[in-house]
Amino acid sequence: MSYMALKHIHLTTIAITFVLFSLRAVWMLMESPQLQKKWVKIVPHINDTILLISALGLAYLLRQYPFQAGWVTAKVLGLVAYIILGTIALKRGRTKAIRVTAMVGAYLVFFYIVRVALTKMARTF
User: Fold this and answer.
1) Could you tell me if residue 125 is inside a domain?
2) Distance CA 109, CA 80 (A)
3) 115-124: Cβ within 8 A, 24+ apart
4) How many Cβ atoms are within 10 Å of 23's Cβ, its own excluded?
5) Containing domain of residue 87, as a range?
6) Total number of domains constituting the chain
7) Tell me: the pLDDT tens digits for 27-63?
8) pLDDT digits (tens, 9 = 90+) for 4-15
9) Are 87 and 99 within 8 A, CB to CB?
């Protein structure tokens, strides 16, 4: 697969991840029964799997690997933080205040990862 095709897939799945997280966050805030629908529990995982596979493919093609390229390491560590915060926001937070705090944190980490990807610099402050 060409670099441009893989990059397009990666960017598309990033956008889908953002939209799906935002939709589920709104439903969480509204305490909507939509969160219990089967597709809501399956589609984000499929998309995120494609996102991860495309990321691995891009890392391989660019020869930029975690713990070798600082900006890639920052993205991987950011991804771990995003997953943890997203899980707290959408499932594991015991109170709405905890969920909202985790949701804001997840958005901040998401935008940090995007900024690192655009600048290729781990420190973007």
Assistant:
1) no
2) 10
3) 116/71, 116/74, 116/75, 116/78, 117/71, 117/75, 119/71, 120/71, 121/71, 122/70, 122/71, 122/73, 122/74
4) 15
5) 3-119
6) 1
7) 999 999 999 999 999 999 999 999 999 999 998 998 9
8) 999 999 999 999
9) no
